[in-house]
Design brief:
The chain has about 120 residues and is mainly α. The protein has a domain of about 55 residues. It is built from three helices and three strands. It has a three-stranded antiparallel beta sheet, with no helix packed on it. A hairpin with an 8-residue loop joins strand 1 and strand 2. The protein is globular and about 45 Å long. The two termini are about 20 Å apart. Bound molecules: zinc ion. The site of zinc ion (ZN) has 8 residues, from loops.
Amino acid sequence: MTAETRDALAYVCAHEERIRADLIDEGAGPEALDLLLAAAREDRCVETALEALHDALLASGDVLGVFGRGIRAVPTPLGVNRTPAGEIVYRCPGELCARTSWPEPGALPRCSVSGGPLRRDRL
Ligand SMILES: [Zn+2]
């Protein structure tokens, strides 16, 4: 899987609910999103499904789609300039997507792409 594919999956993972709502609002329906999630969870090739979702988003007025969002970097908490080594982050289980998140109070964050909880890791 290429870095571009993992980045696109990370975008989908972090914004699944919004993508779904946008597709439904624009009358496209969530099929392209559901097909992609099914492909990722069943360990099938996701490239074709990603392209289809990208095209569906472009057709519904999202000019960026799922590619080129550039969200691979770990989000930096306000007031912290450098990435603290050894800090705990949460990553996609199975490393399907390139998403990382900081721990937050409440439930363990879940990966929308794989359907499982994010796994704890250290920077
Ligand atoms: Zn994920």
